[in-house]
């Protein structure tokens, strides 16, 4: 973050999680181009540049009115020098040269196509490109890539077979109806189960690329066995046609995660994000199309944190976790909120930092209680 924050007509929080970032706003012509540059960097494997663009994009999207003068964002946090130069060019000429070049870059546009295949992330898109593939038709025709990605091959096969269906967005109403459908099965297996629809749906998006359903139950022992049973029933009913499931193992970390999610003065980091989840391909009885549904099951004590994590956006989570860590000394994950300190053997500097975090936490507690 910048430290030279001076007067600006706009609010200037240090962390983007404090910015309201609406989907539609007055500076779409700028954020569309920043999004293109961000994605270009991301697909090139340059995560730090991508992240810098994403943070600047949030700042611009949160501006309450159309930006006309570059001076107005000069001193804002999360607007680095290169982002400012891009925005300045857009204000001056209407277009960023970099964004135009990137949008027309042949490697980028090819990888963009590949990434639209279910199961194909940045790493696989890059590998396919390097193997010489240039179109999805070529990938379908010559399957010699299967040996390169043995763990992802099955998902990619599904992705290729159902490319158009899985690439289409799920309208809000259908997300809700699919949620009701899955909930009925879950509640028959485990009466009293609770479900929240997370993801873009919870953020109000009119359509989503997938559905994120988070389940819990007051009985932590019972919820632990819901996911395999639910998947089996959905498969038998012909609703789930493919599932990529990760169920945690009973390691000590998992047991700690399951039963003691909120622990103060915890001296080691428990495993983060080892939530039971299944990424499924679902034959929608609503539209007749195949849809992606993520089903997540967690104990009641972790539910709020998991719902928060699976609501997103990814950038919001990232920033909120950074804020928790840097300003409060907490570790926020989809399992809970942990305070990680070892009192003994701390250096003086660590103890001062600890005191600073304690004060911040107490202030926050007072604010929230008040
Ligand atoms: P969409 O599907 O177009 O409406 O967009 P989102 O925002 O729903 O994106 P999605 O479905 O990829 O992810 C939803 C949120 O869940 C996102 O903020 C990040 C989180 N999430 C996704 N995958 C994982 C995961 O493996 N672990 C954890 N903890 N969170 C995840
Ligand atoms: Mg989603």
Describe the structure.
The protein is of the alpha+beta class. It folds into four domains: 16-102, DNA polymerase beta, N-terminal domain-like (DNA polymerase, domain 1, Orthogonal Bundle); 105-167, 5' to 3' exonuclease, C-terminal subdomain (DNA polymerase, domain 1, Orthogonal Bundle), CATH 1.10.150; 170-312, Beta Polymerase, domain 2 (2-Layer Sandwich), CATH 3.30.460; 315-369, no CATH class. The chain is 49% helix and 12% strand. 2'-deoxyguanosine-5'-triphosphate (DGT) binds next to helix 11, helix 15 and helix 16.
Q: What is the CATH T-level topology of the largest domain?
A: Beta Polymerase, domain 2
> What's the helical proportion of residues?
40-55%
Query: How does the helix and strand content classify structurally?
Result: alpha+beta
Shape descriptor? globular
Q: How many beta strands in the DSSP annotation?
A: 9
Which radius of gyration do the C-alpha atoms yield?
23 Å
Average of per-residue pLDDT values: 87
CATH class of the largest domain: Alpha Beta
Measured by DSSP, the beta-strand proportion falls in 5-15%
Number of helices: 17
Question: How far apart are the termini?
Answer: 30 Å
Query: Biggest β-sheet, characterized?
Result: 5 strands, mixed
User: From the coordinates shown, what is the CATH architecture of the largest domain?
Assistant: 2-Layer Sandwich
Biggest sheet: strand arrangement: 2-4-7-6-5
> Number of folding domains?
4
Q: Which blocks of ≥5 consecutive residues have pLDDT under 50? A: 1-5, 259-271, 366-370
Oligomer kind: single chain
């Amino acid at each position: 973050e910048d430290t030279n924050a001076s007067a600006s007509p706009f609010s200037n929080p240090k962390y983007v999680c404090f910015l309201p970032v609406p989907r539609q706003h007055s500076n779409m012509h700028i954020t569309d181009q920043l999004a293109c540059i961000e994605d270009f960097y991301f697909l090139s494997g340059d995560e730090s540049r991508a992240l810098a663009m994403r943070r600047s994009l949030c700042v611009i999207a949160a501006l309450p009115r159309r930006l006309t003068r570059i001076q107005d964002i000069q001193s804002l946090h999360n607007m680095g020098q290169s982002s400012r130069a891009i925005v300045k060019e857009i204000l001056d000429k209407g277009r960023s040269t970099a964004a135009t070049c990137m949008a027309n870059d042949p490697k980028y546009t090819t990888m963009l196509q590949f990434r639209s295949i279910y199961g194909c992330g940045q790493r696989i898109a890059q590998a396919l490109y390097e193997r010489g593939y240039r179109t999805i038709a070529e990938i379908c025709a010559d399957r010699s890539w299967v040996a390169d990605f043995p763990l992802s091959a099955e998902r990619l096969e599904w992705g290729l077979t159902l490319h158009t269906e899985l690439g289409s967005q799920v309208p809000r109403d259908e997300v809700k109806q699919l949620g009701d459908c899955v909930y009925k099965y879950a509640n028959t297996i485990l009466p009293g189960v609770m479900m929240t629809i997370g993801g873009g749906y919870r953020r109000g998006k009119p359509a989503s690329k997938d559905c994120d359903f988070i389940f819990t139950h007051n009985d932590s022992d019972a919820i632990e066995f819901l996911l395999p049973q639910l998947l089996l029933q959905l498969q038998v009913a012909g609703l789930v046609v493919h599932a990529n499931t990760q169920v945690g193992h009973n390691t000590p970390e998992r047991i700690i995660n399951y039963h003691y999610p909120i622990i103060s003065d915890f001296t080691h980091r428990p495993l983060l994000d080892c939530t039971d989840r299944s990424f499924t391909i679902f034959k929608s009885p609503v539209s007749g199309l195949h849809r992606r549904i993520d089903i997540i099951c967690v104990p009641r004590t972790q539910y709020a944190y998991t719902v928060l994590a699976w609501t997103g956006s990814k950038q919001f989570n990232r920033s909120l976790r950074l804020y928790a860590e840097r300003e409060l000394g907490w570790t926020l994950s989809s399992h809970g909120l942990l305070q990680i300190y070892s009192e003994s053997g701390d250096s003086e500097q660590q103890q001062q930092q600890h005191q600073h975090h304690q004060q911040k936490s107490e202030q926050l507690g007072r604010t929230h209680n008040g």
